[in-house]
TrEMBL record:
The lineage of its organism: Eukaryota, Metazoa, Ecdysozoa, Arthropoda, Hexapoda. Keywords: Acyltransferase, Lipid biosynthesis, Lipid metabolism, Membrane, Phospholipid biosynthesis, Phospholipid metabolism, Transferase, Transmembrane, Transmembrane helix. GO terms for biological process: phosphatidic acid biosynthetic process. It catalyses: a 1-acyl-sn-glycero-3-phosphate + an acyl-CoA = a 1,2-diacyl-sn-glycero-3-phosphate + CoA. GO terms for cellular component: endoplasmic reticulum; membrane. Belongs to the 1-acyl-sn-glycerol-3-phosphate acyltransferase family. This is 1-acyl-sn-glycerol-3-phosphate acyltransferase. InterPro entries: AGP_acyltrans, Plipid/glycerol_acylTrfase.
Length: 268
């Protein structure tokens, strides 16, 4: 471990002390927690690269990283409640469709899972290199043809190895207390490869996170996995129907769970 790494680790521990002592309602806590989150993630990514390289592109690397990074949630005062575990435990390939509100979403990835990410993330080293070694699938969002080819090639391997594929169809993450319109790429993939869709719903972050006002308070999130949506009988001319079905069931659960969290916060 070189001198620079030791300095970085010392700074992370110093940040941890400051977070513990800072006023939880202050803007300072917002910045301190974000610096801690991204700083520790980057340091861990750097330290794990040699280990991940021993089994490069293996999705079990992602599970290892998520398990070790799980305690970060406690430091930034986020609690996760996972529902629908029975749907996640199945050893089969599904396309997991999830809403996307914030990068503050470290929790245990379900079994053998990989994620579709924009290729720009790969160049954010050391995190990008570690992500590539964990088997993330990077696509060029500026080229639909190239992205489609990469995803279809990847899906053949995922099905052979019973690996789940995680997709954020909203594209850009937005914490606006709603589920935005979905892009069609993942749904084309599901229809063409006859792969089931599994909706994954995160409850609203707005009870504890406001990026505009720089607020990050202790909070809770319900993550709920829903029953699979069979795509066998869908064709590309019915893609809008499939998107609407998926999005509508997610909106219903999002509103219900977000209200539950809001009521909990008010009672605490």
């Amino acid at each position: 471990m070189d001198y620079c790494t030791l300095i970085a680790i010392f700074c992370i521990f110093l940040l941890l002390i400051l977070i513990r002592k800072a006023n939880q309602s202050s803007k300072a806590i917002y910045y301190l927690k974000h610096i801690y989150y991204y700083g520790l993630t980057s340091i861990c990514a750097f330290l794990w690269i040699p280990y991940f390289a021993l089994r490069a592109k293996d999705t079990m690397n992602l599970l290892t990283a998520a398990t070790i990074l799980g305690p970060i949630s406690k430091v930034i005062s986020m609690k996760w409640e996972l529902r629908g575990k029975e749907y996640l435990s199945k050893n089969k390939t599904v396309i997991m469709i999830a809403n996307h509100q914030s990068s503050l979403a470290i929790w245990h990835v379900m079994g053998r899972t990989t994620v579709i990410a924009k290729k720009e993330i790969f160049y954010v080293w050391p995190f990008g290199l570690a992500a590539w070694l964990c088997g993330l699938i990077f696509i060029n969002k500026q080229s639909a043809t190239e992205s489609k080819s990469i995803m279809y090639d990847a899906m053949e391997r995922l099905k052979r190895e019973n690996i789940k594929l995680w997709v954020f169809p909203e594209g850009t993450r937005r914490n606006t207390n709603e589920i935005h319109k979905f892009k069609k790429g993942a749904f084309h993939l599901a229809i063409q490869t006859k792969t089931p869709i599994m909706p994954i719903v995160y409850s609203s972050y707005q009870t504890f996170l406001n990026d505009n006002e720089k607020i990050l308070k202790p909070g809770e999130v319900i993550i709920e996995a829903l029953p699979e949506i069979n795509t066998e009988n869908y064709t590309t001319d019915k893609i809008d129907e499939l998107i609407d079905k998926t999005r509508n069931v997610m909106i219903e659960v999002f509103n219900r769970n977000s209200l539950e969290i809001k009521n909990r916060m008010q009672c605490s």
